[in-house]
Amino acid sequence: MTDWIINLFARKYRDMDENSARQYLGEFSGRVGIIANLLLFSIKLAAGILSSSVAVIADAFNNLSDAGSAIVTLVGFHLASAPPDKEHPFGHGRMEYISAMAISVIIMLAGYELAKTSIKKIISPDDTTFGVLPFIIILTAIIVKIWLMVFYTRVGKKINSEALFASAVDSRNDAICTSLVVISAAVSIFAKISIDGYVGTAIAAFVMWSGISVLKDTVSLLLGQAPDPELVKSIRETVLGYDKIIGLHDLIVHSYGPTKRIISFHAEVSCEEDLMRSHDLIDRIERDLMGKYNAVVCIHMDPVDTKDERIKEMKALVEGIIKEVDSSVSLHDFRVVFGETHTNLIFDMVVPFHYKEKDINILRERVQKLVWETDPNLYTVVTVENSYA
């Protein structure tokens, strides 16, 4: 049904470029959410008044807040589509994350207000009546909310939108909450036990927990979470698939919104290769990656000596020592500077994030000690860093 509605009311997106189509579908989803939630607010409010159920009335106002969330989604997509400017050279794509964060706050506020109303209901319970008409209205609301959840999820997957995923969670919460309201009313009517306030409190706790979960995920995106491992794997496989590229390290992927990335890394090429040809290869890889991942790409070319047997033996020695000390640590950018009195082994070590300064110092000392046990004229010059991908 989602595809049918899109084809009926939003078919224009098929004739647009990727970014324009994404904005169009996002804004269309916001409009659908506004209309559906305002309609649900009206029918739930009527059902709550007819049944004298504070849980139903509170759920109705939750739908009013959902309409506000849909407006935030609509505005967020519009702002996120603004072109880059002097102050924001990488665009405004993160506005969508901010809109998702605003939706999470609205969800939590709705839960808080529901909790206050429900606690009052526990202290001073009222009789609940639930006729056929309110029941039909509430059942219809549940069906609409389930459909909205599916609609937001499918469109969210189509355009990779955190804001729509947050709206899908909110719609799921509403469907569950409204179902519990019906159960509460049934218990009150048939068992003559008023649990309306208690159910409302449970719903409030669930709504607030969902809001916190959405907020946590959105803040993680704004802070700069690690890239998707599948994306990292794809980039590595793509780059290493080019002839003459013998290694890749220091891969960094920055996200400036769902459709805007910056990718940078060091590509290793043999120092025996012609410099101009290697540079031309790097330029070609940058252009290819830009097209494949819709990203700004910056590649640093690292020349590597692959012929000198002494260097290869020393690198193998250090790699073996590092693995002996800690198998989770890796090495790259290995170079050797030969001198009259001693030889410097210069390289970078990538350590896990749980390493503290003390752990790093111990690691340096152990690696140097084991290298000296092999050859006292070998000195290590080490740069320690974390992996960003």
Class from helix and strand fractions: alpha/beta
Main sheet: strands, sense, barrel: 3 strands, mixed
CATH topology (fold) name of the largest domain:
Alpha-lytic protease prodomain-like
CATH class of the largest domain: Mainly Alpha
CATH architecture of the largest domain: Up-down Bundle
Describe the global form: elongated
State the fourth-level CATH superfamily of the largest domain: Cation efflux protein transmembrane domain
Spatially, the strands of the biggest sheet line up as 1-2-3
The beta-strand count equals 6
Averaged pLDDT, please?
85
Distance between the termini: 39 Å
What does this molecule look like?
- There is one protein chain.
- The chain is of the alpha/beta class and 389 residues long.
- It folds into 3 domains: 2-223, Cation efflux protein transmembrane domain (Alpha-lytic protease prodomain-like); 229-304, Alpha-Beta Plaits, CATH 3.30.70; 309-386, Alpha-Beta Plaits, CATH 3.30.70.1350.
- It is 64% helix and 15% strand.
- The chain contains 11 helices and 6 strands.
- A 3-stranded mixed sheet has the order 1-2-3, with helices on one face.
- α3 (54-80) runs antiparallel to α6 (162-190).
- The mean pLDDT is 85.
